[in-house]
Amino acid sequence: MTATAPPETPTPPAPGRFARLLPPPGPGRMLVVCSAVASVGNGLYLSGSAIYFIREVGLSSGQVGLGLSLVGLISLPINVPLGYLADRFGPREVTILTTLTKVVALIAAMFVANFPMYLLVVGVLGVADSGGQVARGALISGLMGREGRVALSAYLRSVFNAGFTLGVLGAGIVIAFDTRPAYLSLMLGNAAAMVLAAILYLRLPRVPGTRGEKKREGGGWLALRDWPYLAVAQVAGIARLGPTLAAVGLPVWLVTRTDAPRALAAWLYAINTLMVVLLQVRAARGADTVPGAARLQRWTFLGLAGACVVTGLASGAPPLLATTIMVFGMVVFTLGEIWGEGARWGLRYELAPDHAQGQYGGMFSTGDALAAIAGPTLVTVLPERFGLGGWIALAVIFLVGLAASGPVIRWAERTRPRFVTA
């Protein structure tokens, strides 16, 4: 009797090129899809909303700018209590709540008729968006664990930038029509994207909150007492000046103080976007431990300081040399940006206790205050008034961050047993 060979197990088909760019199937991939949907909506709204409020509502550009600045001031302190709610009731639920709050605010934006109404609407939008990012960070940590949360954060940022760019391109077409219905479609488009994102979040597993658990010793508002962690957040936040320099400082410097072609300003932003989309995941590798994140943060500050000095040399250079300097400066600024984001994720997650990722994420976001509030002024006024000296002053700010980085991280590491087990 002849033995029959067992049937061969079919080899699964190799993943397609697009699939290889995504995390493995599961919650991580669903989070990436959520981010892609939301990013397109955000790109639509953010690219055209200021023009809508100026041309259709009748606000001045100063009023629009003031409203956005006030949103930044309001959002940062509110992030900690919103993060605490995410810890208590579950980060998925708070993420959905903030997403739906944005839907309501976007619809309300269509009926804004004066400056007070504008302040109310953009205030609600800003708080919901900022608080949603904090809750989403806790959700990522709860779903992916220590092994996958930094890598997934990098995937999300890469995908967000790609989707945001698509939204910007769509907004450009809408703005070309320059009609009220066209502008209102931006609001509705973002609102529809948020509804879809909220539905997709419901498909994710629930991360249990701490409500109903026995109260931990020293629990409650633990992050507010963690001064070492707060210090780490403030130092890491200095690196957030880098994206502001890339988005605002470099184009203004190119147009006003160099002989490089003015059209290069737009191409520099394209270089930044492409580098973030293509390199963010790779740049964040190794940042899922405190030593790895600390090392990446050192490279961040060195890169940003060097980019400042190099960019300052473009003034007075011949056009070809000025163009080369500006392109090189943007490449280095972008490397500093993607390194800095990787370092932030590692420090933000690894130094926070697992049961309080929400409120700690809210506390870490307070480090953005310098870049959010003073950043646009610093990166334009210093180079404009002092030329190369202004760029050197900006480099010194990053070198201060470099000097403070190691000591504050070591301080936080020494105090972790007290806070992580509380």
From TrEMBL:
It is a multi-pass membrane protein. The keyword Transport applies. The keyword Cell membrane applies. It is found in: Cell membrane. GO terms for molecular function: transmembrane transporter activity. Keywords: Cell membrane, Membrane, Transmembrane, Transmembrane helix, Transport. InterPro entries: MFS, MFS_trans_sf, MFS_Transporters. This is MFS family permease.
